[in-house]
Amino acid sequence: xxxxxxxxxxxxxxxxxxxxxxxxxxxxxxxxxxxxxxxxxxxxxxxxxxxxxxxxxxxxxxxxxxxxxxxxxxxxxxxxxxxxxxxxxxxxxxxxxxxxxxxxxxxxxxxxxxxxxxxxxxxxxxxxxxxxxxxxxxxxxxxxxxxxxxxxxxxxxxxxxxxxxxxxxxxxxxxxxxxxxxxxxxxxxxxxxxxxxxxxxxxxxxxxxxxxxxxxxxxxxxxxxxxxxxxxxxxxxxxxxxxxxxxxxxxxxxxxxxxxxxxxxxxxxxxxxxxxxxxxxxxxxxxxxxxxxxxxxxxxxxx
Amino acid sequence: xxxxxxxxxxxxxxxxxxxxxxxxxxxxxxxxxxxxxxxxxxxxxxxxxxxxxxxxxxxxxxxxxxxxxxxxxxxxxxxxxxxxxxxxxxxxxxxxxxxxxxxxxxxxxxxxxxxxxxxxxxxxxxxxxxxxxxxxxxxxxxxxxxxxxxxxxxxxxxxxxxxxxxxxxxxxxxxxxxxxxxxxxxxxxxxxxxxxxxxxxxxxxxxxxxxxxxxxxxxxxxxxxxxxxxxxxxxxxxxxxxxxxxxxxxxxxxxxxxxxxxx
Amino acid sequence: xxxxxxxxxxxxxxxxxxxxxxxxxxxxxxxxxxxxxxxxxxxxxxxxxxxxxxxxxxxxxxxxxxxxxxxxxxxxxxxxxxxxxxxxxxxxxxxxxxxxxxxxxxxxxxxxxxxxxxxxxxxxxxxxxxxxxxxxxxxxxxxxxxxxxxxxxxxxxxxxxxxxxxxxxxxxxxxxxxxxxxxxxxxxxxxxxxxxxxxxxxxxxxxxxxxxxxxxxxxxxxxxxxxxxxxxxxxxxxxxxxxxxxxxxxxxxxxxxxxxxxx
Amino acid sequence: xxxxxxxxxxxxxxxxxxxxxxxxxxxxxxxxxxxxxxxxxxxxxxxxxxxxxxxxxxxxxxxxxxxxxxxxxxxxxxxxxxxxxxxxxxxxxxxxxxxxxxxxxxxxxxxxxxxxxxxxxxxxxxxxxxxxxxxxxxxxxxxxxxxxxxxxxxxxxxxxxxxxxxxxxxxxxxxxxxxxxxxxxxxxxxxxxxxxxxxxxxxxxxxxxxxxxxxxxxxxxxxxxxxxxxxxxxxxxxxxxxxxxxxxxxxxxxxxxxxxxxxxxxxxxxxxxxxxxxxxxxxxxxxxxxxxxxxxxxxxxxx
Amino acid sequence: xxxxxxxxxxxxxxxxxxxxxxxxxxxxxxxxxxxxxxxxxxxxxxxxxxxxxxxxxxxxxxxxxxxxxxxxxxxxxxxxxxxxxxxxxxxxxxxxxxxxxxxxxxxxxxxxxxxxxxxxxxxxxxxxxxxxxxxxxxxxxxxxxxxxxxxxxxxxxxxxxxxxxxxxxxxxxxxxxxxxxxxxxxxxxxxxxxxxxxxxxxxxxxxxxxxxxxxxxxxxxxxxxxxxxxxxxxxxxxxxxxxxxxxxxxxxxxxxxxxxxxxxxxxxxxxxxxxxxxxxxxxxxxxxxxxxxxxxxxxxxxxxxxx
Lengths: 303, 263, 263, 303, 307
Ligand SMILES: Nc1ncnc2c1ncn2[C@@H]1O[C@H](COP(=O)(O)OP(=O)(O)OP(=O)(O)O)[C@@H](O)[C@H]1O
Ligand SMILES: Nc1ncnc2c1ncn2[C@@H]1O[C@H](COP(=O)(O)OP(=O)(O)OP(=O)(O)O)[C@@H](O)[C@H]1O
Ligand SMILES: [Mg+2]
Ligand SMILES: [Mg+2]
Description:
Chain B has a single domain (13-258), classed as Rossmann fold, CATH 3.40.50.300. Chain B is built from 10 helices and 11 strands. Chain B is an alpha/beta fold. Chain E is mainly α.
């Protein structure tokens, strides 16, 4: 039984589908989407074997799990590259620095920064319309932390939606729009949107999001890992064990198929090792970390 | 066919049914009815239950138009302007504005007594409070109800007793000064006193309007009407002056019916 | 108080109202009514509209129980078992099973003609088709409706003419062999032939059941009833044998009422 | 026949049966009270925790709603304004249209049209709300923008309007039933005085059916207040304190759904806000309903 | 009436009829707005989704490949959940409506119930989900099952059914009740022989509207634990290994149509959007089919009952 984030869902669904087929339906896998938070709630009550998570497990949830005596393994499964997009008719943006994004998005910008000109005097006098993920989502947490330096610190007057397709529509319609969402949505709507290369720090080159740049770690800081958490007790059950192993072996291929960015092949090997060793607990200490590359992540995981 | 025998054929007509047939879907409820209605006279319609009296009456104000599947044949010629009441070209609303009706079962609106009576006036676009006040009072007086309800004009019409409700409906029909009034057993729910006052009222009204009344009470027919028609299973068996119909009917059937009751 | 004068006081009673008062909320519609009802006799109730006849009648089958705020005082002693019909300890359903009622406005159920008549039997748990068939036919015959509807027993009751509907309701009330039957102006919607047959039926029924009837038609009261009560604004003004009440009433009011009509 | 004296005794088995049935029916009716109590219990219990962190005055009087942000504000008025505005728009669409349709179907339309149109009308309530959401976003908003070029791409107006269309069946179908139940004798009485269809409809049928029509309205209003997805998709999820339908906004319900299915850890203060918001909504509908209840009591007509 | 007066009368009637006409047009217009919206939405789903509708679509389980994905588990789940909902909500709603109209004395208890009922209609569906999670799943231990979901939706639509029932009952003329009571019927006999049959057309309207809403609900169902990927069906009675009991399916995990749809609409690939449209199309057809019986029944009933 798997439940949790809808962001991770497509990957797990793909794995579950193939796994179930390879077992000739002898093993029944189910996947739900009650959100990372909802997923952890069930996970920490021992109702699910595996929880999909678009962010690391947080303090509160660690405590809950501990209280219920649930131990778990944390396995990153893919990268979700947050892509900053603008309308294709927008001809004044070639790239954006993190600082510029911060000007637009920081809490102090609320009600003040409403025009492109205010961000950079070189830009035209046009209303600035912002689109982003809902404040409840891991995506939002990650973005705010990466850009504004503090999780959940953001201006409030932007159009939010849980459904990234809605954001796609919003940006595609408005020349003055800027938004961020998962890479896959950009990939599918390339004709309607334009991805903006991001300059991580002063002096670094502007990097456009792509599978390559994410994997090689040059697309920073907006690439975030997503996880599955496996209940340690369930891991002793043969069907769960087989499923997780199947997951790690096929993740690279299937991740690509559902348009997410896979981790490098060796990362999955690390995970398998981990899993075999029953290496329990989280490496994130109950909070989000931003801007880690795959390398760093593997190092973390290897600890 | 019926024979019409009367003394004062020179009387002006108010309406005349000519070869009137009526169908509820495929069921023919009226068969080739011919009948004159004289102006400023009371014509009563008698006959056994289910013979088509109500059906006939409801042809005059095109009530049957409200239901699908109903069909008229023939004509009702309405004087003085010779409008054919049944012609599809004639607007049923115009017909109903000129011809008002009191139903067999009292049907007050779920409104106050006042508004029930004022309804016809409001429908005609009257809005002057004083005019309406006057007409409502006059109509209620004529319907012998004013005394009982003058202090509770704002109460619901449905709170009245059965007889009071029927008188309320009569007042409603009266308020708009119709040319022809149709009464479908108006006194069947009334006590003798109220009945007497309604009968008196009908006799008074004769001065101004023409009246066509369905009744089961043959004494009532004899008392108040100038002409009487006897119907039987959709056919007009006999029509004539009331005295003549009751005393010396032309048809055996009529005599049977009347004596079956009077004897 | 009223004086009861009669010749055959030795007659068995079927019911007796004792100091019966009735209140619609705070409005007192019946005031201290005392009245005997003799077994296997027809008692008729006359009086002007709104005087409380229906209210009185509806006390007998506890119809008023259906509405909140209604209140009885006094008693109706029901013979032979001396049950107080109004006692809260007595089940109104038992009361209604023994006492059936025909209403002022015909109220057929929106069911087939057959089911309308069979309803009382079904309520009593009767389910044998043949028994019901027989009773339905008998009831419809008694109500002088069989001939008209025997071929359309499965049609809706509402498709009948007003008079037919009322006869249908009478058949419904008859089908269950009640001990006492209440009629609230049962013939006000009927034509003379049907009225005559209902009157005849009532006269026949007298052999088996006791009958209490409200009527506006004083001739009817005179024709069919053995006893007559005259009510006025909630009070029982006079009660006596019909002949005596009509020919030599004790009270001035009664005489006025009757002669105001007969004179 | 048994002795009459036996017959009139209370029949105990029948009496007992009647009582049992009454008790069962009462339980069914009381279920609603039980449900409400359970809901209120849950809401109050969780809100209690919430209000220990957030002073009631902030909750009521703050003009910002950013419970999930780092700089958290809990001004419920913001969501309330969105809820009220969008519901008002919806009602301004649904009540006139629904009533007109009901009158038309009941009093004007030929039999065949009525019998065909009504089921299709009712299907309007069966279209998944997300489809309505996209309809508002992709069809109605651009259409409105043709008329009001200033209109932002996400706004309460188009969401409210589409929501109005969605609740038409509630208003129209139930009102039509109520009107149809008005006895023919009343219509005949009206037509016999020379009234037109419209006069009959407005002066006799509608007043006689008031109670049913009011019930239909109340259900419609409730449905509007409780609606979620349309607003989540088309209104922008942007917490603005505004009663201007031409602005984007967020409503209580869309907030609740978003958070309940989002990535937030359950039990955190951000998560707890949904209960406080839910409680507020419940109080709001209660006020509506109380008003409706007393109005109906006052104007109920009997025939 | 002389010619002049007649002329005046006719002028007035023409004016009145103009209003009549205008209202008639307005009515058609309003109806058109509603029906066109429906048609547009439906046609849009049809255009986008029709290409995907095939036997395979109906008989396949969800898949990561849009072209292989189907709605078998979803539609089976929806049908079963609706079955539970109808079986629970209709009798409960009718019983409550009947109690309030025919039994309850008009006192404060009734008032409270009445306010409660309409108040519940405005509670957002997700709150019902939270309630059901606590109550059905944890307290009663019904699990994250078809039964739980069906009962949750039943609670959700109960107010509509109750209100429709009450209004339908109210429109029965008092004189009909009196006639029945006068025959010696008990309250229950009056209710079962008259009140419920004569109000069933109105009750059906409530059921139709309520079920249409229930079949499209997502949020509460997700909250009580509906799944998204599930590649097997609930056990049919007496099948499988070990043989399932008659009611085992009630406790099976499941998914429903709208969840599948929502999931697909939020996927990036355009092909999934077509799937969503196809699922929406089928969902509306299902609603129509589900309500078809009720609509037909109502049509029959309304023809027969006229006051
Ligand atoms: N709506 C209807 N559909 C079909 N048949 C009808 C309808 N209304 C009346 N009838 C039939 O038409 C015939 C005439 O009915 P009508 O109501 O005119 O009788 P009536 O003479 O007024 O009787 P009553 O004195 O009892 O009121 C009857 O046989 C009746 O059954
Ligand atoms: N439900 C009620 N609430 C209040 N008052 C009522 C109610 N029903 C009747 N009344 C009043 O009680 C009195 C008696 O009414 P009742 O119906 O018994 O008269 P009735 O003698 O039967 O008259 P009718 O011959 O017109 O039928 C009348 O004044 C009437 O207005
Ligand atoms: Mg008639
Ligand atoms: Mg009476």
